[in-house]
Structure formats: C-alpha cells, structure tokens
Amino acid sequence: MQFTRERVMHELKRRTLRVTNVTRVAPDYARITVTSPELEGFEAPGPADHIKLIFGEAHGRPIMRDYTPLNFRETAEGYELDIDMVLHETDGPASDWAKEAAPGQLIQQAGPRGSKLAPAGITEMVLVADETAFPAVSRWLEAVSDAVTVHKFFFTVDERMRAYFDDQDDITWFDIDEAPEGILAELRKLTITDTTFAFLAGEAITITPCAAIYAAKPACASTNSTHRATGSVGLQSSTTTSHSTQKTLTSRTESASRPLLVRSKPLVQRREAPHVRQSNVLSLWPRNLGRLRRAH
Ligand SMILES: Cc1cc2nc3c(=O)[nH]c(=O)nc-3n(C[C@H](O)[C@H](O)[C@H](O)COP(=O)(O)OP(=O)(O)OC[C@H]3O[C@@H](n4cnc5c(N)ncnc54)[C@H](O)[C@@H]3O)c2cc1C
C-alpha cells in the first residue's frame, strides 16, 4: 500500500508584519503574534511549511531564518499569524529579535513558497524533534487523524522546554546529549511499514542516524527506485551554518512508499563551532551542496 501527498505552490510574497502580542509558551520560548493586511491570502496548509523571517541585510544579502507558521486566523481586526520562536541562549539575529519583540515592532517575512500536505493513507507516524521543531510537530499532530498511531521522541537542550507539550503524556523525552543513542534505540524497536510516516527534525548528530534506519528498511527500496525513475528524491536545505543548517529530505513524488521527512542540523556542537560548514553531513547529499548558502 502506498500513501499520497499533495503538493501546492504559492505566489512568493514579501510582507511587512507588525507584532501585536508576545507570550511565553515555555520558558525561553516566545509565541509572537503578528498582523498585516498583507497577510490576506496567506496560505500554509502543509504541517512542515516554513516561512522566512528577514532581519536586515549583511553583505548585500538578506539575513533570513526559517520558522514554522503555526496558527493563521482572520479576526475582526484583520489577519493574525502566530510564530513560536526559541530564545536561544547564544545571540543570533532571530533569537535576539524575538527576545526583544514587543507590540508595534515590525518584521519582514516571505513565503511560504510551497506546501506539502499531510500524507493520506498513513497508519503510523514517527516524530523525532528538538525544540525548534515543536511548532511543526504541533501542526503534524493536528494534521493526522486520530486513527494514526503516533510515536513521539523529542529532545531538548533545556529540560524546561518540555513545558511546550505539558498537555501530552505520551512523549519519550531525551536530553540532547543522550538523544542520538537513546532515540536510535527506540526507533529500532518499531516496525516500519509502507504506511509509516516519519518526520525527523533536529541536530544532524541525532537525526542523520535515525534517517538511516528508515532508508535501510526494505520498504524503502521500492521507493528508491521510484525516486530514481523520477529523479525526485532530494534535499531541501536552507543554510550552511552550524546549528541552523537544516535540511528536508523528502519524497517529492506524490505517491511514495517511503514516508520520510527529515529536517536536521549539522554534526557539530552548536556553541563551539557556530559557523562551520558541515561537509560531513552534506556529503551524504552531494548534489545539494549548491543550495546550502545564505547570507549571515
Ligand atoms: C524549516 C525550519 C523551520 C523552523 N521552525 C522553527 C520554529 O518554528 N521555531 C524556532 O524557534 N526555530 C525554528 N527553526 C530553527 C531556526 O530557524 C534556527 O534556530 C535559527 O538558526 C535561529 O536563528 P538565530 O538568528 O537566532 O541564530 P543563528 O544566528 O542561526 O545562530 C546563533 C546562535 O544561536 C544558537 N542557536 C541557533 N539555533 C539553535 C538551536 N536549534 N538550538 C540551540 N541553539 C541554537 C546557537 O548558539 C548559535 O550559535 C526552523 C528551522 C527550519 C529549517
């Protein structure tokens, strides 16, 4: 049996948004609500959709970071979008902006460029995520039907981040240091079928071996050949720099028997090597190296 995923493209727009509200969804995790008439027609129907927030320019190029558009709504006052942003301990343009965010502040935003809808026909879902992917996880949990069995393996730099999901008691939590081996061991216990879908997002040191488990499953073999036939497996990546280098490995076919979606960060210690190019990870997907550039 195979599942299907519909893909939708959007007109790429750049907008100026105004902050209307800032709350805490967990310690060091801000929910920032923005508004603008320019949000009219905003669409982000895919659970793993991401938008760009733009924090000025450096060397003539925009400084952009990826974020998940969490909730979008139309109110009597206009359109509102919630974005949940981790307030990282270390400085960075996005995190710094979020730490200071207050009503009235403006931010530039672009996208999303396209959306992949939640797959139809899955029976089981595996979610592996660090705190930056919690908004995406929330969207996945809303997107899949109650009939789908969901396995949740989450890891955090800071244990207090677990408060983000304090209404859920079926999560297996890991500290970031124990995540690579711990999550791998859990995943090995699971049976993967053609209707299992996995969303993996976090540091590559954890995510890359997890992705390998799925890639090695016999169920994936037929999908690989499908991919070869269509040339449609690829890495969508946004950046080369350290922790924020993330990638999405996904089937671009609309019908695939391998349900794997990966977003990962590089195999380095974030705080020790903040701007190192990650050739070790990228070498897994050499044809995508050219995409991994951004202004910083
Ligand atoms: C598709 C996608 C969707 C994303 N969605 C979200 C989202 O909804 N919410 C969210 O908070 N993040 C999200 N992220 C992650 C976010 O884009 C990065 O964390 C981003 O690098 C933060 O930018 P910055 O300018 O604060 O830090 P950067 O300039 O990129 O880095 C500066 C410093 O910040 C710290 N830092 C950055 N990222 C991390 C991290 N993940 N863990 C620990 N320390 C870190 C490091 O100490 C680093 O040295 C998403 C990323 C992708 C690819």
Structure summary:
By secondary structure, the protein is of the alpha+beta class. Helices cover 20% and strands 36% of the residues. The protein starts with a strand and ends in a 14-residue tail after the last helix.
Classified by CATH, the class of the largest domain is Alpha Beta
Share of helical residues: 10-25%
Q: What small molecules are bound in this structure?
A: flavin-adenine dinucleotide
Strand runs, count: 18
Question: What can you tell me about this protein's structure?
Answer:
The chain is an alpha+beta fold. It has 2 domains: 10-112, Translation factors (Elongation Factor Tu (Ef-tu), domain 3, Beta Barrel); 115-291, Rossmann fold (3-Layer(aba) Sandwich). The protein contains 6 helices and 18 strands. It has helices at residues 93-100, 134-143, 179-189, 204-216, 218-230, 279-282; strands at 3-4, 7-9, 14-26, 29-35, 51-58, 61-67, 71-75, 78-86, 106-110, 114-116, 124-130, 149-156, 171-175, 196-203, 233-237, 247-251, 255-256, 260-265. The strands form 5 sheets. The protein has a 7-stranded antiparallel sheet. It has a 5-stranded parallel sheet with strand order 13-12-11-14-18, sandwiched between helices. A hairpin with a 2-residue loop joins strand 7 and strand 8. Helix 3 packs parallel to helix 4 (204-216). Flavin-adenine dinucleotide (FAD) is lined by residues 50, 65-68, 84-86, 88, 90, 92-95, 132, 135, 157, 238, 242-244, 246, 263, 270-271, 274. Flavin-adenine dinucleotide binds at residues 50, 65-68, 84-86, 88, 90, 92-95, 132, 135, 157, 238, 242-244, 246, 263, 270-271, 274.
